[in-house]
Write a structure and sequence with these properties.
This protein is 36% helix and 13% strand. By secondary structure, it is of the alpha+beta class.
């Protein structure tokens, strides 16, 4: 079979695309799904939350560029898909883990040297002390109000509403 014939064949994501020893948590697999991975060094991913989310699109494209071995990352807020072109030696698990980390908002986990403290690696007492709270009681009402005023609510902004016509027209741009 020629290369062109192989490209014409329908393609599911082969089982051996991913390593046998999964290093990514089960939750990560639920976040990011490989849609098309037939061509070595190229995977199209389905990323929940990407559709109509320009901020996530920009975060994915910028964050993945920092990952060694990624040549390009092109996200579509119209379709919710992400196309990655990468060194074929880079594992799909590593890429899906990086995408999931970016989706979760942990941009620092993609970088070689995280910008902030690694809270997951801290002893509970050290984290409680650093955050000036109580492990037994949590934040006081006043402290919670102050932090809410300083940092804002722990909520994502609603995605912009787009007309059906705008969605249709975006299909011709990708």
């Amino acid at each position: 079979m020629s290369y062109l014939d192989a490209l014409a064949e329908p393609c599911a994501v082969p089982e051996d695309t991913f390593s046998d020893t999964r290093q990514i948590a089960v939750a990560t697999a639920r976040i990011v799904t490989a849609v098309h991975a037939c061509v070595p060094g190229r995977i199209r991913w389905r990323v929940p939350g990407l559709r109509q989310n320009l901020a996530l699109k920009q975060a994915l494209e910028a964050g993945l560029r920092e990952l060694p071995g990624i040549h390009s990352a092109s996200a579509s807020a119209a379709t919710g898909n992400l196309l990655t072109l990468f060194d074929p030696d880079l594992s799909a698990d590593r890429i899906s883990g990086a995408i999931a980390a970016l989706v979760r908002g942990y941009v620092g986990s993609v970088r070689q040297h995280p910008a902030g403290p690694e809270w997951h690696a801290q002893e509970a007492g050290i984290a409680v002390e650093a955050l000036q709270t109580s492990a037994r009681l949590g934040l006081t009402t006043d402290a919670a109000r102050e932090r809410l005023a300083e940092h804002g609510a722990n909520a994502l902004p609603p995605p912009p509403v787009r007309s059906t016509l705008a969605i249709f027209l975006d299909q011709f741009q990708n």
